[in-house]
Design goal:
By secondary structure, this protein is mainly alpha-helical. The chain is built from 5 helices and 2 strands, in the order H-H-E-H-H-E-H. Strands 1-2 form a two-stranded parallel sheet. The radius of gyration is 17 Å and the shape is globular. The mean pLDDT is 90.
C-alpha cells in the first residue's frame, strides 16, 4: 500500500490506528487531519479528545488545528496532503457555524491534552463517591 493510501486509510474514524514514522514524515499533519475528521462527526467539539505525551506536542497539534481552521479564507493549497487538511477544515468550520461552536473565538473547546492532563480532567469530573482526600505519606 502506498503512502497516500495509508494516509487515506488512517482518516477512517471508525477504526483505530498506530502511526509510526520517522521525524519529518508528516505524522503531525496526519494527526491534525484525523482530529479535524473527527470534528466533522461530533455534535460538540468537547466530545473529541486527542492526547499525546508532551506539552510541546499538545501545543504543536493545537496550533496546527487552529491554523488549519483559520486558513479556510485562503486559496486552496496545491499540495495534495495540504488539500486534505484544507477541505476538512472547511467542513469543520461549516459545522462550527451551523452549531455555533465558535471554536476560533474559544479554542479551549478543542480538547487536546497530555495523558496526564486527561487523567486530571477525568478525576476532576468524576470524583470518588466518598470524596476522601488521599492521606499524606
Amino acid at each position: 500500500m502506498n503512502d497516500q493510501a495509508q494516509r487515506d486509510q488512517a482518516l477512517d474514524v471508525t477504526q483505530s490506528y498506530i502511526v509510526q514514522a520517522p521525524a519529518g514524515s508528516g505524522k503531525t499533519e496526519l494527526l491534525t487531519q484525523r482530529y479535524l475528521k473527527l470534528l466533522t462527526t461530533c455534535s460538540e467539539p468537547e466530545n473529541i479528545i486527542a492526547m499525546t505525551f508532551t506539552n510541546k506536542a499538545v501545543d504543536e497539534l493545537t496550533e496546527r488545528v487552529l491554523s488549519a481552521l483559520q486558513s479556510i479564507d485562503q486559496p486552496r493549497p496545491e499540495k495534495v496532503h495540504k488539500q486534505v487538511t484544507y477541505d476538512l477544515a472547511q467542513t469543520v468550520m461549516g459545522r462550527s457555524n451551523e452549531r455555533n461552536w465558535q471554536v476560533l473565538d474559544n479554542p479551549k473547546r478543542l480538547k487536546i491534552s497530555t495523558i496526564d492532563g486527561l487523567s486530571s480532567l477525568i478525576s476532576s469530573r468524576y470524583p470518588s463517591k466518598t470524596q476522601l482526600v488521599p492521606r499524606q505519606i
